[in-house]
Amino acid sequence: MHKCVVGDTSRIVQVLYNLVGNACKFTERGSIWVDASVSGNGEVVSVSVHDTGIGIPQDRLEDIFAPFAQVDMSTTRRYGGTGLGLNLVKQLVEAHGGAITVASRQGKGSVFTFTLRVWRDGQASPSPITDSTRRSMALAARKTTAEAAEDLESVRSSQA
Ligand SMILES: Nc1ncnc2c1ncn2[C@@H]1O[C@H](COP(=O)(O)OP(=O)(O)OP(=O)(O)O)[C@@H](O)[C@H]1O
Ligand SMILES: [Mg+2]
């Protein structure tokens, strides 16, 4: 990776704030960790937020990104919130040409991965977002989440 790259810092912080906030809210025991990797010539960063929390049912993984979507109302009462965080995150990530993916095991934990573009410090502006940018960002997010989901299982079995 280039030594110094730039991105839309305030947006990245906002996305992380929401994902780490969720991880904290839905995890009573175990750990929460964030990691990042680069691909695409050092111009694509995948950031994953992992937790060992309550997890999300498989059939809800798609719609938790919709506005006001929460897994259940008892969860809402217990944990609070409005169900808007992930919708905002998705919109922010996609507005920057990136993608967000999730993998989860109920009762075991979750991992959310988002991709973002960075560019060399000093470079006038990043290249425009094309369909091919979006495709490669979506692919990178899916790949990282799939790998992280395997780790989620191994973390679990090593704790058992
Ligand atoms: N890390 C996670 N572990 C388990 N469930 C999660 C996790 N992140 C999100 N969810 C589920 O997805 C729902 C939607 O998340 P979202 O961040 O949009 O809303 P919220 O956290 O409930 O409220 P808000 O973010 O508006 O305060 C949550 O209510 C929860 O059911
Ligand atoms: Mg939230």
From TrEMBL:
One GO MF term: phosphorelay sensor kinase activity
Region (Disordered): 123-142
UniProt-listed Enzyme Commission number(s): 2.7.13.3
Gene3D superfamilies named in the record: Histidine kinase-like ATPase, C-terminal domain
CDD domains: HATPase_EvgS-ArcB-TorS-like
Database matches in Pfam families: HATPase_c
Keyword Phosphoprotein: yes
Catalyses which reaction(s): ATP + protein L-histidine = ADP + protein N-phospho-L-histidine
GO cellular component, one term: plasma membrane
Superkingdom assignment: Eukaryota
Residues annotated as domain Histidine kinase: 1-120
InterPro entries: HATPase_C_sf, HATPase_dom, His_kinase_dom, Sig_transdc_His_kin-like_C
Alphabetical UniProt keywords: Kinase, Phosphoprotein, Transferase
Keyword Transferase: yes
Protein name per UniProt: histidine kinase
